[in-house]
Structures are given as structure tokens and as C-alpha cells.
What does this fold into?
Amino acid sequence: MIDYKKMIGLANTCMQNSYSPYSHFKVGACVLTKSGKYFVGTNIENASFGATICAERSAISSAISQGEKDFACIAIVSSSGEYTPPCGICRQVLSEFGDLEIVLAKDENNFKVYTLKNLLPNNFDAGDIK
Ligand code: THU
It folds into this structure.
């Protein structure tokens, strides 16, 4: 049983560290591994806008860097207080690691649960490289 509230709380805490001087839009993410470990990430903007890293990829990078790649779920929050869907690049990056659950949250009591396949059907993956 996934503790969505805990994930949302961790994402929200991490979001406070957002480096977003250009958009002033803070995003936080928390990824849960199948083995029960949590990794968080926030968005890191750059004066060269294209160098910006989204919160989701920040969290995935942290987990991978610590040897984890079997993910069960990722929770995403933002400073808008609205449901914030992952961008296309992040969906593609998440798809590399299977069909995890994606939780979009306004707060710990208001969230929606999707799957990666819901949000990115017919994705390009390793099997398409021939
Ligand atoms: N952002 C994320 O962190 N995740 C997304 O999936 C969408 C966008 C960030 C990137 C940038 O810092 C800000 O939101 C505005 O695009």
C-alpha cells in the first residue's frame, strides 16, 4: 500500500528548495522505489533556460545516482496549488523505468493517481531502436 500522503509531504518539503528565479514556479517531486525508499527532487532553473532541470528528473537522477531504478510511484506538487502534470520530457524519462504510478497533488488530501501509460500511451522505448 503506497503512502501517497507521505510522498506528497516529502515532495512539498523539497519544493521549498526550488531554484526558480525566472519562472517563480516551484515544483517538487518524490519518487518511491519498489523496495520502499524515497527520493526527492525539485526544479533547478538556469539563465540558459534550456538547461533547466524539472523536479521529476531531479528526483529520478537522485535515485539513480544512489543505485535505485525500480520505481513504484512518483508524486508531484507545485506552488500553483493546482494539479501539475509532468512535462513531455519528464514523461519520456519516467517511461524508461516502467509503468509507475504518477500522483498529481494539490495537497496531502487532494490528489489524483494516474499511471505512466495513462499519461504517455504508445511511448518510444528501447524496443523501437532497431
Ligand atoms: N517544471 C517541472 O519542474 N516539472 C514539469 O514537469 C514541468 C515544468 C518546471 C521547470 C521550470 O523550472 C518551471 O517548472 C516552469 O516551466
